[in-house]
Amino acid sequence: MALLLAKRIASVxxxxxxxxxxxxxxxxxxxxxRRLLLLLLLLLLLLLLLLLLLLLLLxxxxxxxxxxxxxxxxxxxxxxCDRRVPG
Length: 87
Known about the structure:
Blueprint: H1 2-27, H2 33-71, H3 79-82
Keywords: Membrane, Transmembrane, Transmembrane helix
Transmembrane segments: 36-62
């Protein structure tokens, strides 16, 4: 499940990068140098926020997976035989 989520996030990231690249190629000739630097700074901050969000989601996913593993009954020694359904 985590691998599927990672692949999905990577594909969304690639699509977002391509869209940003196309938009920048259209906008760059219209902007001056000062506005361009401000835009690049804003994009950098946006990317940092996105990275933080992804890290938080990954942490939440790992925490939920850990809780699921903790809540599952574990078979230890002879207890494993007692948990089988007779029949």
